[in-house]
Amino acid sequence: xxxxxxxxxxxRTLEPIQRIMPxxxxxxxxxxxxxxxxISCQYLDDYIREKAEQGIKLEYIHIVLATMxxxxxxxxxxxxxxxxxxxxxxxxxxxxxxxxxSLKNTDAGTTIKLCFEGTEDIFEVARKINxxxxxxxxxxxxxxxxxxxxxxxxxxxxxLIQLAVNFLMFLDRHDMLPKAIMEASPFHTSLFFxxxxxxxxxxIYHHVYEFGTTxxxxxxxxxxxxxxxxxxxxxxxxxxxxxLVMDERFCDGLYxxxxxxxxxxxxxxxxxxxxxxxxxxxxxx
Length: 285
Hints:
35% of the residues lie in helices and 24% in strands. It contains 8 helices and 9 strands. Strand 3 (80-83) and strand 4 (86-89) form a beta hairpin. Helix 3 crosses helix 4. The longest helix is centred in the middle third of the chain and has 17 residues, at 122-138.
């Protein structure tokens, strides 16, 4: 309460224009910036093939999420969130993503939320992802803490569900939401990720949620062939598109732009992620 939260600390040494932005743009849907780009799959495929020859199995999701963990560790302003006009920064990196147990129409999928220190190399990130997915797929009751929390809320009589959700949002806005609910909630996260490549469709611009603290939503699309220029020739090349939606209130456009350039650098050279980070960069007071 009063600026103290279990999932972050308030950033107090901001410029006046940064402090006032959350009061001008009061909601995340009012503050969304949308960015899309493509990357050459050659960089990813070559790296995956090289690691496979060494007996290490990696997939696109491992490289992309390892890239985002490293990016959030080096660019701490991306790991902020806005709550009731105040800007907070997280001490750890949280990433939420959806896993489908099957591609049947009846499978809505389940959400996994992982915590990272920011110092992990790509192999540690891949191990955490694989272990979490294996646990979800092997779960006898087919549910995790997120699913169980949602199921508990849905046991409330229908007319009271909206009241219960509004009460949880009130507690969150006033820094009183229990830590256990925050840790179970996939919406209290640094980054929400969806891999639409596995569904065979292109990337989208996914909204950031009003409930919780999500400030970044990354959607990966399916691969497609596009013309690529190499010297004096143009030939089809496999590319991978992504859409990124950002809450612009917690850092400025220049910071976002430089962060996106760094993101693409890691995706073009995934071997940079093999070296653990000595320590993540801390945000300003």
